[in-house]
Fold:
Amino acid sequence: MPVLDVEELHVRIATRNGPLHAVRGVSFSIEHGETFALVGESGCGKSMTALSLLDLMPQNGKREAKRLQLDGVEIGGLPEPELRQIRGDRAAMIFQEPMTALNPVLTIGEQLTEGPRLHHPDLSKDAAKRRAIELLERCGISQPELRLAQYPHELSGGMRQRAMIAMALMGSPRLLIADEPTTALDVTVQAQILDLLRDLQREFDLAILFITHDLTLVKNFATRVGVMYAGELVETGLAHEVISAPRHPYTSRLVACAPALDTPCGAQLGWLPGIPPRLIGDLSGCQFRFRCEEARTDCDGSIPWHVSGSRGYRCVLESNLQQNRKTLSVSQTITTSASEALLELRSVTIAYQSMGAFLTQGPSFVALKNASLVLPRGSTLGLVGESGSGKSTLARAVLGLEKPVSGDILIGGKAVGSLDPASRARAVQPVFQDPNASLNPRHTVLDIVRAPLDVRGEESKIERDSRARAMLERCGLAYYHFNAYPSQLSGGQRQRVAIARALVSGPSLVVCDEPTSALDVSIQSQILNLLVDLQREFNLTYLFISHNLAVVRQLADRVAVMLNGEIVEQGPADDVLSHPQHAYTARLLGSAALAKV
Structure:
């Protein structure tokens, strides 16, 4: 008997324009000790499917299912009090961002013991505490008794995620739902969390529902996979078979969007044209037909579900679609010249002064130590390393936001510290990780992109508008986006606005700090392709910071590896990523290889 058995699951969300069909006829099951992954673009229905299993939908949501059984018990029609007993006891959930999922005003111990004591009133406080210590230690957290008294902000990102996993296991669940549990983590911590989940699955015989948009995690972590599009499953099967030989055009496109460690520098990744449908109104036929190159006239009718062994897919096409993951021609490779150095760091050291007792000066903390590198004009340097290794500190120094205690930073032969703000803005511009935080929500898209030109005031308003519009169009935004606000755009569109704003003033150097980490695989490929095209067109130089080594391999022709504030290895991307000389670089690559497609 499967731990979870779902048949014909539907979720409808009431809106002013009619019901939104968020989940449509989804059926799957998960056996003991099995991991079933749901993948797809943002908004395809993955998280809504997971939330609906435990009836955690929005208040305007309605769930229906022909069968919804957990451990042999039909939970589809259970009243809230009985369902509340199941949440956290038989089924538990790990959320994407532990800092928002954990209560900031309660200690880790209070949050771990609260649920079990509510579910089991006869459980003593001491017994719950012993269970919490045992699970924290089992989840790889040192000094578990000390951690019980700490608050979430006192733990690192990896430790917070481990604490959330321990919290999920407090009730000894049979089903563990993991919703993007590693998205915000760097590659080594990500590998540690996945290894931990594997070990815990074997130890507790857990069934895991794994939600992700990262195909690089699915092939080796999941047993089976379901690919979702427009609220329904379009393909299912063994994970390694679906990723290696997709049969649905959408799956094939998704796989083509994902970079890999063997992607040649400057290669154009596959991409998905258009946008997903709104899921309101008539949803007959194949919803992917509006974006599919293989679309036919019969795609708007009844779509058959083909079954062959463990594989299944919904499409009018009957032949396998084993398209190439990427298309690359010789002309697509970035060529750079080392004759002119645009960016130089010469033994740069940055330290922060800590505060001691009674507002006295404490010991200084060295965030960047004797960093030296040379970045030729028109090239890309990928800066990689774990969280806290000094990558962002180096980027802030290049942007002139941090002053070195020693050493020199030169852009175009001029010291960054000697440039006035206007000259520095012409020389270097940033693109940040989260456009939600970096774009002013009260300004329109056109105002945001025109702002750097407004500050300079060197042209008329008409000329500034014209330049801003031209850059927005070059970054793939249409005229009807110009008067929109950031909240009215998708994540990928907001990042395009951020790129347009960075380039409108004509900088030579662009600092990209994790610009694609918050995007799903299809949008990520579009942004990476855009960055490659813009680099060729404007002869841009990129300092590209990322913990995704596959993304760095696709974009960068040089790589620098950071550890504890020092650059421990640097050189051509082919040499560093294929034949690492430093043990730490080899460890990073080993962690990334665990999730390689």
